[in-house]
Amino acid sequence: MRKRSMLADLACVALCVLAWTPKSMADEVWAAEVHRYEPGDGAVPGDGPADNALGPWDTYHQNNTWYGYANGIGRGGLLELKMELPFGDGTGDDLMVYEVGTSVGGANDPFRAWVGRDGVNYYPQDNVGFYSAGDHSSFDISSVASFGPFLYVRICDADTSGMYDGADIDAVSANHAVPEPAAVLLAASSLGCALGALRRRRARRMR
């Protein structure tokens, strides 16, 4: 009986550990789904499909060769992505957009970014958004944090000169993910289970 009880205690502790995986501890998350894509002028099949912007960044230029894949949204193009988990405001910058710019051997193309809860309403609620002149760019979303947590990111090409082919989006990440309710409940339940197991072990020692 004692052996079975010990196995049950160990199972509870293991469940607690599994519940608090890096994802549920508000770790970095990436874009996981294309929500909307409206290619602009200059976007051609060779620029890659919209789902090239999903997952971690991987595009760079070396020795006259391009590696990885990105999505060229074209001049005036729009790309909306759904993230792996909701995210919010934290210490430092919160959102990272990997535009294929000079840091990886490309050319900087300006773009604007917004964050949204439902894939319909985006913030800031204006046409300016969070502006970048291109390249790998990070943003502090504290000015709109009260509308969060967020699950969607909208990116629009910001070229008005006609000098560029449009922003090339390799990836999008959020630095301060918010655990989903199910993950929080599982972790809380598992923690309670583990604490109960420790209490039972202590009670047996006192007998």
What does this 3D model show about the protein?
The protein has 207 residues and is an alpha+beta fold. It folds into two domains: 1-25 and 179-207; 27-178, Sandwich (Jelly Rolls), CATH 2.60.120.260. The protein contains two helices and twelve strands. The chain has helices at residues 2-19, 181-206, and strands at residues 29-38, 60-62, 65-67, 71-72, 78-87, 95-99, 111-116, 122-123, 130-132, 136-139, 150-157, 168-174. Strands 1, 4, 5, 6, 7, 8, 9, 10, 11 and 12 form a ten-stranded antiparallel β-sheet that branches. Helix 1 (2-19) packs antiparallel against helix 2. The longest helix is centred in the last third of the chain and has 26 residues, at 181-206.
CATH topology of the largest domain: Jelly Rolls
The ordered H/E elements are HEEEEEEEEEEEEH
Q: Could you state the CATH homologous superfamily of the largest domain?
A: Galactose-binding domain-like
Low-pLDDT stretches are 13-26, 182-191
User: Count of DSSP helices?
Assistant: 2
Radius of gyration: 22 Å
Helical content (DSSP H or I, runs of 4+):
10-25%
The proportion of strand residues reads 25-35%
The CATH architecture of the largest domain: Sandwich
Anisotropy-based shape: globular
Give the structural class: alpha+beta
Beta strands, count: 12
What's the story with the biggest beta sheet? 10 strands, antiparallel
* Average pLDDT: 80
Ends apart, CA distance between termini: 16 Å
- CATH class membership of the largest domain: Mainly Beta
